[in-house]
Amino acid sequence: MALNPGFRLGPYEIQSPLGAGGMGEVYKARDTRLDRVVAIKVLPGHVAADPQLRERFEREAKAISSLNHPHICALFDVGSQEGIDFLVMEYLDGETLAERLARERLPLDVALPIATQMADALDKAHRAGIVHRDLKPGNIMLTRAGAKLLDFGLAKAGAPLGAIAGASALPTTPASLTAHGTILGTIQYMAPEQLEGVEADRRTDIFAFGAVLYEMLTGRKAFDGKSQASVIAAIMHSDPTPLSTLQPILPVALERAVHACLAKDPDDRWQSARDLLRELQWIAEHGAHASTSAPSGRQTSRRLVVVAWGVAVVMTAAAAVAATLLLLRPTTPGPVTRFVVQMPPTHDLFTGGGAAPALSADGTTLVYVGTSTTGGRSLYRRRLDQLDAIAVQGPDAGVREPTLSPDGQWLAFYSDAGSVQRVQKVSLAGGPVTTVTEAGGRGMVWQDDRTLVMSSETDTGRQLFRVSAGGGTPTAVTSAGAAPRVSYLYPHMVPDSTVLAFTVWSGSLDSARVAVRSLDSGEERVLVDGTNPRLLPTGHLLYVRQNAIWAVPFDAGRLQTVGEPRRVVENVQVNSGGMALFAVSGNGMLAYVPGAAGTQRRLAWVDRQGRETSIDAPQRAYDSARLSPDGTKVVLDINDGRNSDIWIWDDARSALGRLTADPAEDQFPEWTPDGRRIVFTSARSGSMSLFWQPADGTGDAEVLVDDPSARQLYSFAPDRTRLVVAGIDGANLSVLTLGESRRTTRLLKAGTGPLDAAIAPNGSWIAYQSNESGRPEIYVSPFPSVNDSRSQVSRGGGLAPVWSRSGEELFYVAPDGGLLSVSVSTKPGFVAGEVKRVFADRYIMGGFGRRNYDVSPDGQRFLVIKESGSHIVVVQNWFEELKRLVPTK
């Protein structure tokens, strides 16, 4: 029977249940003698009545009590009272590795320390003659003090390491508990010998360790199937997909270490956890350069690190040169080859809006968007037979979405740096930047060497236009049709063909569809759910869904798919606007930015002098950062690759906690003025609606309003009863009034395109973003009686306004991504001062309806989101792999 709060087992007072399993129920309790929190594991009645199972329980107590290690859950006491047998263990505050992996794959810098701690703990247990036999993510607890191994309930006592070669069972261990043909453990982490029911030893734990480490690094189980039988078959006869296929950037030595753990024959595995531990420590010390065996002894000096770096550079250069020569050779395609393009010390890879890389048709040149370490965004060109990247555009140019002409001579791109958005081009041979047309959109492709197809804003949504690369007036390719606010984005076509593919966008990534259109007949068809299509000369249609590239055979003549789609590349970044960060050359090279959208993001403070201070929050896919009214907490939405949820960073406790966990998208959070609730947008009711929930997590989310015109909150009025909201497309602003009859009233229609808005601290003024002039600008009007007496604050464009808490300063994002400020006076009327730059473009500041920064209560610091350590994976001869994975005939 369950134990109720207040029930006492000796000096231990039950507080609450923690969980239950086949070998016991676990409770949180208080040790009344030492006034500390402990965990109580109670033996179930049906187990206590079985002598064999009871003996297992006693063996668990003996096993754990003999282990004193910082990464093994400590046993404090054992007891029996009124027929209840129990263990008293260390109480661990954290989450299991299984819970963490249900949300995300672990980055290398997180997975390696956990793996090292696990290996160290196993080494301690094995040297004491104890084999865990049920190592799995659910038995590993992640705490602030590190990883802790739990639940030795299936462990069996054995002779100390070395005392009996190849054996672990004491003579007193009943044969019935370890007999041939008995399977104990969790199948997906069991070694082949366990499945055969033969004797398990420490190498069995090493197999399970490898399966757990594989799952940490890839986000998928090493052995999986639709049934228990198929899982067993996979463990016995199949090898998991190589790490280098799923995560090409991982050190080669780490793949070798995992491969050795998962060997079918125990004699082919690591023979001790100690050897495995030393290998992992060496890999952690040498990082990305761990591509060879660990040296014997302790020779890891600075000199060796320098040598390893030099060898890595030479090998990378040699690989790049060799791969390029293979591409240029008119013979049978070479092998599929993967390598990583790391960013040099001079700049970082930009992965915000419009950051997809570009490849030349012959696969020799890669172009990407980078941000200088001193600020400013530029286009960088790197020939893959060279090591250096060259800046194509100078700093402070708000460039995005580069695309190379089929002949490789011209580079076209969007530019937001001037007073208007432009399509520009520059010759790769050198020369001035010229303007093709004044337009801005999402996505652009060369139809041939003389013509561009681009997405551009209209009164009814973004549509596709054709324009001469030499300049001129764009002509429409598509029309809006009957559906309002539907946009056509990210066009793509094979050069000189007549079939155009594009994304049909209705306001969110979930709504994105891939469509194709014949430029000859005008016939148009929606084909699949996804975004960022690519038509390939191999007869495939590529598109992106769920952070993966999918491929399906495509019949261009009939505008139809002619087979089943298959995932061909995992773990590709897709930003919130639906842009997938990948490119494919005409001759079969693939380049992509790995990771779920923004997984390389960190939180930081920046002061008015541009000095940055890191925030000790974990690296996650952060968006929509908002400071609490008292400045001590940050609410964000985090996308784990499957959906977005609301999280809160508590700066005082250095803790990141989840607020929502609904399978639907939860995003765009805002604090109420009293800091007690979080308002956010969610699709959990079937359509996008506004919800709110207590910020301390004590209550459930409730619908605030279900109104198509109020699906995203921008700002609260100081009186807490009025909110400025917009539809999910952000085209119109309304005031939502709370009370018995919640209602929305149109505030203004501020032109086309997404908006943003902020009410001044005194509640009398509103700053908002509007595209009505043809570009986004920041305006200030009286609130709530918005009328024609408005003032334009920005000059040359602006996004995402925020007031200082004093109301004497207004901040906004420049078109090039930097932060600007302007001093203001609101009495008796509104007067704006001189616009000044606070810092240059180095951060993910947001805009177009998603602001990613905030201002501290004293107005001296700025909360920002930054990218960290991004890189590009390049795959040579990828078409050969694609043809094997998705045959077209």
Could you explain the architecture of this structure?
- By secondary structure, the protein is α+β, with helices and mostly antiparallel strands.
- The protein is 16% helix and 36% strand.
- The chain contains 13 helices and 63 strands.
- A six-stranded antiparallel beta sheet has the order 1-2-3-4-6-5, covered by helices on one side. Strands 13, 14, 15, 16 and 17 form a five-stranded antiparallel beta sheet that branches. Strands 30, 31, 32, 33 and 34 form a five-stranded antiparallel beta sheet that branches.
- The protein is globular.
- The N and C termini lie far apart (62 Å).
Question: What's a concise summary of this model?
Answer:
The chain has 889 residues and is α+β, with helices and mostly antiparallel strands.
Blueprint (SSEs and pairs):
Elements: E1 8-9, E2 12-21, E3 24-31, E4 36-42, H1 45-48, H2 51-65, E5 75-81, E6 84-90, E7 94-96, H3 97-103, H4 108-127, E8 130-131, E9 140-143, E10 146-149, E11 156-157, H5 175-178, H6 192-195, H7 202-218, H8 228-237, H9 243-246, H10 252-261, H11 273-286, H12 302-328, E12 337-342, E13 347-349, E14 358-359, E15 365-372, E16 377-383, E17 390-391, E18 399-404, E19 410-415, E20 422-427, E21 434-437, E22 444-448, E23 451-456, E24 463-468, E25 475-476, E26 487-492, E27 499-505, E28 513-518, E29 524-529, E30 531-535, E31 540-545, E32 548-555, E33 560-561, E34 566-569, E35 582-584, E36 590-592, E37 601-607, E38 612-614, E39 622-627, E40 633-639, E41 644-650, E42 655-658, E43 666-671, E44 677-682, E45 689-694, E46 702-705, E47 712-716, E48 722-726, E49 732-737, E50 743-749, E51 756-759, E52 765-770, E53 777-782, E54 791-792, E55 799-803, E56 809-813, E57 819-825, E58 831-839, E59 846-847, E60 850-851, E61 854-855, E62 861-867, E63 871-876, H13 878-885
Antiparallel strand pairs: 1-2, 2-3, 3-4, 4-6, 5-6, 7-9, 8-11, 9-10, 12-63, 13-15, 14-15, 15-16, 16-17, 18-19, 19-20, 20-21, 22-23, 23-24, 24-25, 26-27, 27-28, 28-29, 30-31, 31-32, 32-33, 32-34, 35-36, 36-63, 37-38, 37-62, 39-40, 40-41, 41-42, 43-44, 44-45, 45-46, 47-48, 48-49, 49-50, 51-52, ...
Helix pairs in contact: 4-7, 4-11, 7-10
